[in-house]
Amino acid sequence: MTATNDPLVSTDWLAAHLNDPNVRVIDASFKMPGVLPLPKDDYLASHIPGAVFFDVDAVSDHSNPLPHMFPSADQFGRDVGGLGIGNDDTVVLYDSGGWVAAPRVWWMFLSFGKDVRVLNGGLKKWVAEGRKVEKGEVTPKPATFRATFDARRTRSMQQLVANLSSRAEQVIDARANERYQGKVAEPRPGLRSGHIPGSLSLPYNNLFDASTGTMKSLDELRTAFLGAGVKLDVPIVTSCGSGVSAAVLTLVLYRLGVENPALYDGSWTEWGAADGPPRRDRPGLIPIQKLPRCARDCQLREWIGQLLLSRQRRLSCQVRPPHRDPPPFPHPLRGTLFDGAVVRLRFRRLGSRCFGFRGHGRRLFVDDDSGTAERCNLRRGDVAFE
Length: 386
Fold this sequence. Notes:
about 375 residues; alpha/beta; 11 helices; 17 strands
């Protein structure tokens, strides 16, 4: 991907091209069920001139009990054509400014064969700049839109279950970290808490400036993904609560040049159902004494990893053995560490004695599938204080 086909456009660009005959503007705002006023009501009260409203729930597979699943190509073409959108039009999507759900609709268009653009900052930035808005509904002249679905753009639950064994694709969860860790209940009733085993956590709201609604710089975005333990050269699938905010991660990956990222359409609403596949309700934690046998049985071998902090944390700890004898080596670690900071961890076993970190009286635990005995890169969520 090159900078010339960046899917984002600025408010200045849209203002300059708003009256072009082939430019079509879509309000793709979305809210969680039960949140009022409804997105359509917000649209009727204020929208960019000429914009039509894309209802994420309406343009979906109504035969599927899961919310707003991808429709068939025929339905997408019919619904989009009804909005006055043709295959040759230049389409600009926006939402209220919280990136929900313009990226989702952008990914739908891309999956059905059309490259469209997303307004950086959305309606929030447009209004903050004093630009003109309108009230009421726009009634467009129907157009013809021919859609062809590219199955590479999405993943099913069956594919994600198979990925548990193959680990061919990284799975990134866009939900709030508290939901990922299973510390809070899911907003949709009846769902279990937790996350897909082996998935990484990168909340989508970490990727834009909440005060302006604009997306962060490419360098900041790349740092956020790397800080979450994501390898940008390995296939990636994004996930969230119901396949909406995951598209924010997908959009960023597209901007970073990652080829063919995919989106798990059912996301946690499907996986977290009572009869769903296995889950983790918190990072899989095991005591240092239960490290992989190859690590426990080695003599004076270091087990090295990296701790990626999920939030700012005051850390003051020192290597201490699980007995009263002083450790044979010093390894102090002190200071204030911030989001994305990397800490190198060392564990040693001398004879029958296992040494590891203790911080404020808390033993540090590590995930049992984190890596090899001599060297591993622990990802966000793989290391935590009990």
